[in-house]
Amino acid sequence: MNIWKISIAVLLVAALLAGCGSKDEQAAPSQPARNANGELEGNLVVWTFFDQVEDMAAQFMKDNPKVKVEVKTFPGDDYQTKLLTALQSGQNVPDVFDLERSYIGKFIDSKYLTDLSAMGAEDLVANYVPYVQALGRASDNTIRAVSDHSSPGGFWYIRENAKKYLGTDDPDQISEMVGSWDKVIALGKKVEQQSKGQVHLISNSGDLFDIEAYNTEPWVKEGKLNIDPKWEQYYNIQREINDNNVDAKLSFMSAGWGNALNAGSVVLTTMPAWASFMIDNDNGSAKGKYGVARTPEGYYNGGTYRGIYQESPNKELAYEFIKYIASEKWQQHNLETTGNMPGNAKVYEKNMKSFTSEFTGDQKVMEVYYDVVKDLPAIQPDKYSEEILGTWRKVAKEGITNHTDYATVVANFTKQVQNAFPEIQTQ
């Protein structure tokens, strides 16, 4: 579920996209998934980059003892290349394979993903969080991949630190205190002054871009580059955050970021729910240490989706596996075991008033996260947006550092997009 910095074979990606075929292609024949007694039976191969899929497979096999699921996990930097190579060659392709949020758009319209809507998947995701459902849809609106979780984010804070610098550790009060970027800036100036520059309110001005990334219009519309006017406003806010030392200049997931999260040199850390593995909990030292507040706008970070290979001979059994991960039963187990937030809204609703986490003590954190995910825009993936967003982050960050005016930043950004995607109209 983490964000990858992937530099893979661009030619492989291009070949994949060039090889996209008609959605009406004849599906491969599938072996029956059930034996004469009505039990699920057979073998599946699942490819992933995410080790928690082992538990998913184990729970599925526990419910279906005549099924064997072989999970092959590849390191993050190798996974996408291995998958592309297997799909292109048609050799040793898994029945089910994982796709990360950062590149699902490269695959979603390809000929390699089975149309899950035709198999009944509309019913599976009927109660899903809208944005989670949308990310698994192809351009023809059919479901091609399904996730078992959502990835909402918030401001994590050390309770004692918040009391010292904000005067309270109550999540609702803190959410109100940072309910807009103007409030964030004013509060950040106060914290910087109070601590004599030793403590900052947030980790990085770039957190603003992470939060607003999916609250803006798509980067490409009808073949044309589309720069949402909101980005100018966000750029100027980011400059103000940076120039007034509201932030500690620590990038997400950097060593310094993790140290600040645990030691408290940053009061509010922008963090998705799944990033709690970054917390130092030796001998239970983080028990009840943290609270979670809302960010000025809701956001999510990451996400893992599963699709079925179009030519799999085990398509019927593979679909039963997809049905399982979409089920309330699995997502409840996953919530209780890992703390990963569900994709199914019904699981949120059943647990909001009762679920607590070791790190956040008595706080009902799902109330915060559900407020976030239910209102996020339901935007379908495409093959351009994530890479273009990465380009914008890079160019905007350079502009902030060099105190460059917005018009120049846009010109530099447009040039880079034009070089990377000459088919996109930029005028």
Describe this entry's structure for a reader:
- This protein is of the alpha/beta class and 427 residues long.
- Helix content is 41%, strand content 12%.
- The protein has 18 helices and eleven strands.
- It has helices at residues 10-18, 53-63, 76-89, 104-107, 121-124, 130-134, 159-166, 171-177, 181-194, 207-212, 230-243, 255-263, 315-326, 328-338, 345-351, 365-373, 385-402, 406-420; strands at 42-48, 67-73, 96-100, 146-147, 153-158, 200-202, 220-221, 224-225, 266-272, 290-293, 304-308.
- The chain has a five-stranded mixed β-sheet with strand order 2-1-3-11-4, with helices on both faces. Strands 6-9-5-10 form a four-stranded mixed β-sheet. The protein has a two-stranded antiparallel sheet with strand order 7-8.
- Helix 1 (10-18) runs parallel beside helix 3 and helix 17 (385-402) runs antiparallel to helix 18.
- The two termini are 36 Å apart.
Give a brief outline of the structure.
The chain is an alpha/beta fold and 427 residues long. Helix content is 41%, strand content 12%.
In percent, how much strand structure appears in the residues? Answer: 5-15%
Radius of gyration: 22 Å
The total count of helices amounts to 18
Strands, total number = 11
Q: What structural class do the secondary elements suggest? A: alpha/beta
Oligomerization status of the protein chains:
single chain
How much helix is in the residues?
A: 40-55%
Strands ordered across the widest β-sheet: 2-1-3-11-4
Mean pLDDT: 92
Order of helices and strands: HEHEHEHHHEEHHHEHEEHHEEEHHHHHH
Low-confidence parts, pLDDT < 50 over ≥5 residues? 1-27
Query: What characterizes the major β-sheet?
Result: 5 strands, mixed
Q: What separation lies between the terminal Cα atoms?
A: 36 Å
Shape: globular
